[in-house]
Each structure stands twice: as structure tokens, then as C-alpha cells.
């Protein structure tokens, strides 16, 4: 039986982690920076060393192919190598390097499956430098025109297209490359569920739908001591009551409904002044599209009622709105079967975060494998997954891809 | 009958308003700045011009006395001339300048009452530069040792005592000057009640008790998409639920209970990250000491319960804690009687803001007269009270002081 070399895979995570390394630990490798170029160059060298054919497309996605016995659509895996400002070694990188380890294992054992095996890394998955996140894979599947994507600007006004050219990754290939046969993505969970429950492999059934709202309440600033409660137009109170409602709503709807108010700002933000303005975000997620829509509707109705009661104006912006994605049943079942065959404990769960696989699911059967994140930490220099779990994840990736490629 | 010259009083408000004037309108005359010195010098010149005897005490309070027929404790009035950073022309200034207009009216008409008439302005009432607010009058009544007060520092580290000496107002007199016979303070309401109800004179029965709390919740930052509701330690949600409770509490306790959450800050304050830390203030006020204490107790109990439910630590700081002050019944009744004798509409109400009169109430019978604030605006360059209302307020001040001084 083919076996992944876990130590070698872990070493490659450490090696790639030297590109953009922060002092002490962690990585700062924002998309299309010099550090990202260094990471890309290093990864590309690995691909070439494995004799893979490399294609770089117009948005800088890199797809390397290990030829099959027949010229059929490839069984693809991959993820991203860009990180957030204070990121860890695993998020994204694991998916790319595990793919290369799969190819290395096949190559060393002289295995050439019927279909080609492709390993990709997609541009700007994190969205930490350019918006939206998952931009490279979105363009790859035809969800955004290349021209639009190249015009994205970072916070300092730098244009994505210029930065891409600057680091030498504005490729010639059309992003909508040949449609893959299928797509697998190995990723750390980035949440605490597997670690808390002591489960080794997460069988990802899909990605939650996401609705991000920004609510801005405009009231009137007044003296906290001299303005009777009934004469107030307290923008802050409308926001804070809406936030409390969001929490009650998640509890009431139950199931997989999540609600987070991560940002709330008051103006003028003084102890004895009634807030004239309050701006808050609400992050709603659910694997069930109908429930997510209901949560949004109920939340906005409550916010509007609070605003009216307080004599406050309310403005709503939708910052993100993604329907839930269901992964391919056959691929998901296959991952579970391979994990069990290896004697590993499994848990079916949705992904709470967005991943390139949800974009690929638009054009081919797709699925994801999760390995545990210690304490659920991610987007954090302390991000950690034990070598053993990394090896299990990569081994399942190898089996699932090979089975699919031989089909 | 003696009559205030309203036009002259309004002109003096405009004149003093030129010291530290902001471009366009409004005043920036923080305590012990050069602008404050200019305002003090101008006011002192007025006092001297009226032939009043001026005493400056060790904390920079200025008391000017118009001699009576007998050497008895003075009937005192006054307020402050420091302002907030973007203040108006009326807050504080009106009380000082109306006092001088009272003396001017007496002097022009050759009236010398039995008891002396004193007009004071107290240092750093606003608390916008040095804490606590009402510092000068607090020292005046012996509520804080002079030495402690002189050590107060502003946000840039400047020492109050040094700043006082720098502008030449570190006087030689002991702050606990001869105990006045009584104290009156004319002030704008700084709230909307009189203006909304079309009432001309507010008969102030006392000052609300104030309790300022800062609650700091410490939870754990986590991914909003991957952390199940039950595994969260959401510091923000503890704060926002506590804020919503504060509002319900004020409604439930009713009466004069006020509750304001004017400041709330989340860390890291990002849309998709559960807040690790939340810091909020709660401003509770009531004229009833027992009810205020109950509000505080209930609020803290709820906050603690929220924190425990969310697995979050809570820290409580008391930023201010003042019992309600009741003004002297005879003085309050007298103000109401004089207003009615002039055919003016009156309303008995508590002061929502703190005033020097509440400090003077510790050492002598005290009371306040309120005139309407347009739209309740205060601490605002648009602060405005019509000349007519200013004249009524000063006229009542004259009558009430004269009656008291002749007694």
C-alpha cells in the first residue's frame, strides 16, 4: 500500500513557512507581496522538481499536472499559500503541500494513474489584502471576470493586476482552464470541534452559507444626565439591543445557526453622552439556506423595530452573501470510507470558513478533508496541527484521489 | 422695582465668549489654558470695575464680594467659566455673568443690602481637562485636600498646580473661605425638558445621584464561522446583553431612573472574529438614592450572570459615585415664588448634570435656577438660550438673592 511520508510533508510545511516568517513564529505572507512571491517560487520549484507541467493563469493561479495514463480531465487538489498578517504554517499551505506529497509518493512508487493528478494554489484566498476573499478560485470557475479581478485595490491603493505583474505571476493561460474531473482540498479545521471531541478526521459535507450585514443607526447625541429616557434617540441602544437579539436568535433557531456581532462602534463613544451613531456588523451563518434567510429576515425586522422605537434611522449594507454549498455526496462518502478503512475516527461537519473548494464545487464534484486545529486556533501564529493528524489527512487525500483517478 | 439689563447681560456673554472663541462659533476654554486665563482676566476686570473685593484661593477659585451694610456671611452666587473642548457661550458663564449683572444693578441703583453679595467662579468645573469635575468647588467646601487637587494631571501629563501658577491664578487664600450664608446658581438646563414643554423657569429641587461603572469582559477571540455557539467565550455578547438589560432596567424602575451606555469597545473589532475583550461604560442616575443603589446592584448581577453564562471574566471599576443632593427647601420655594410673581411658568425638576451648587450645598443652603436650552443642546457650539429667558433667569436670581441678603 502506498504511504505518505509524514515527516517529509511536515518538513515541507516548515520550509515554506520560512518565506515571510515572522520573528519567533508565524507567517506574514499577504497575497502578491514579496513574501508571497518567495513562497510561490519555492512551491513552483517543488512542482518542477516533480516533473509536473505548470500552468499559470491570468489571475496568478498556479496549476501543476502530473500526467496520467490517459489525457483525461485531472483529479485536482490544492488550496492557497497566501496568509493573513499574523498567520500560521498550516492554513492553506497544508492543502498545497499535501497535494505535492501525494504526487511525490506516486512518482517514487512509479504509480501513474489513469487520469492526471493536478495540484493548484489559488491567488488571494484570504482576502486579507484584496477583496473579495477566494478571489483566485472565483475567477478560475468563471464567477468573476478576470478584468474585474485585476482592478481590485488593496488598502494602500495598489492594483492587483500591477502587483501580480510586479512579482512575475501574471500568467498567459485563461483562468477557466480545462474543467477538472473533481477537486479535493485537505485543510485544517480552523475551529475547535475535532480537537475538543478527539476526532481525527472531519468529513466535510459542505460550506455554511454566510450573510454579513453592516447596520448603521443614526440618532442624536445628548447629555446622559439631562435627557429623559422617553426623549432620547439613542443609536447605541438600538445597536446593542439588536446584538442581544442576534444571540437569542441563534439560540432559538438552534441547529447550525451562528450569529456573531464582532464589530460595534459608537459615536462619540463617551461615558455621559448618548450615542449619535452606532455602526455594527452581524455575521450570520447556517448550512441551511432557508434558515439562514429566516435569520436575516428576523434580525433586520427586529433592528428596524428597535430603530423605530428609539426614533433612530437605520441603514443596512450587505457585506457578503453566500449560499451554503453542498459537496459531492460520492466524494464525501469516499473520504469517510477511506478514513474508516484506516481505522480513524470521523465526524461529518460543515465548514464554517470559506475555502477554494466551495468555488471549485461550481464546476466539478468537490469535497474537503479536515484535520484538527489545536484549540481551534487559526489566523494566529500559534496555529498547530500535530504531525500524526497531518499524515492521516494526507493519506486519505492520496487514497481518495487515486481511487478517483483510476476510475 | 430693580430690573436686570438683559441686553447688557447678553452682551457680556458675547464678550466673554471671545476668549478662546472657535472659528465660526463656540468656545474652547479648557481649565487653566491660556484661553481660560484670558477669560479669567476679563471677568476679574469686570469684578474690579464694580468695586468688588476679590479673593483668589489656592485652587484658583475667584470670589468677588460686594459689601453689605453689615459684615455678615455673604449671599453667594456663581458658577464656572471653563468650557469643554467644543463648548457654547452659556454653560457656566451665564451663572457668573448674571451674578455680576445682579451686582451691577444693585450698584447702579445705589442698593446696598444688609448682607454682602458674592460672585464666584470655580476652577475646572467641566472636568474636561483635569479629573474630577467640579474640582474647584469640591476643594472649596473641603471635600478634597488642596494638596491632592494640585497634583491632578491632564492627559498630556501637565500638573494642575503648575498650570495654575503658570497662568497666575494660584491664590494665597485658603480655599475653605468664610462660609457663605447661602448659594444660588443660575444655569442653562442642558436638557430638553423646559424647551419641549415651553416652560420658562426650572425650579431645581436637587441633583441626581450618579453612578458611573466601567465593565470589562475578557473572553476568547475565535473564528465566527468555525466556533459553535456553545463553545464560544464571547466577551462582546456579555457586554451587549448587559447594555440591553440596562435599558430594560431603566424602563422597569421608571420614575427618574436613567441608564446610558455611551461607550462600548470591542477587541479586535472585526466582522468575523468573536470579541476577546469588551469594555463598556454604564451611566446610571436617579434622584432617589435607594433606587439608584438598586439599579447598580441589579445591573451588576445581570452582567455577572451574562459573563458566567458566556465563560467570560468580568472586571468592574466605579468611575464616579455621587449620592443625590437635595437643595434647600426654603430657597427652592423662594425661587418658585419669585418666578410666579413675575408671571413666569415654572417646573420643578432635578438637575441631570453635576453643578458647583451641589458642592456648595454641603456647607450652606443652596439652590439653582434653570433657563431653557434650545433643543436641550449643551457641550456643543450650538448651545443657545434666548435673551428673554436669560433675562427672566437673572431677574429671579436678583430677587431671590436680594430677599435673602436683606433677611
What's the topology here?
The structure is a homodimer of 407-residue chains.
Chain A: H1 6-16, H2 34-49, E1 53-56, E2 62-66, E3 75-79, H3 93-108, E4 117-121, H4 135-140, H5 146-150, H6 160-166, E5 182-188, H7 193-197, E6 201-207, E7 209-218, E8 222-223, H8 235-253, E9 258-260, E10 264-267, E11 273-274, E12 277-286, H9 289-310, E13 313-322, E14 325-326, H10 329-341, E15 346-351, H11 356-360, E16 366-371, H12 387-406
Parallel strand pairs in A: 3-4, 3-5, 5-16, 6-15
Antiparallel strand pairs in A: 1-2, 2-4, 6-14, 6-16, 7-12, 7-13, 8-11, 9-12, 10-12
Helix pairs in contact in A: 1-3, 1-12, 3-12, 8-9, 10-12
In brief:
The structure is a homodimer of 407-residue chains. By secondary structure, chain A is an alpha+beta fold.
Mean pLDDT figure of chain A:
96
Largest interface: A-B, 58 and 58 residues
Identify the CATH class of the largest domain in chain A: Alpha Beta
Which spans of chain A have pLDDT < 50 for at least 5 consecutive residues? Answer: none
Quaternary state reads homodimer
Q: Helical element count of chain A?
A: 12
- Termini distance of chain A? 18 Å
- Could you state the CATH homologous superfamily of the largest domain in chain A? Zn peptidases
* Beta content of chain A: 15-25%
Level of helix content of chain A? 25-40%
Succession of helices and strands of chain A:
HHEEEHEHHHEHEEEHEEEEHEEHEHEH
Which geometry of chain A do the CA atoms define? Answer: elongated
Counted up, domains of chain A total 2
CATH topology of the largest domain in chain A: Aminopeptidase
SSE-based structural type of chain A:
alpha+beta
**Main β-sheet description of chain A:** 9 strands, mixed
Rg of chain A over CA atoms, rounded to whole Å, is 23 Å
Q: Please identify, by name, the CATH architecture of the largest domain in chain A.
A: 3-Layer(aba) Sandwich
Count the beta strands of chain A.
16
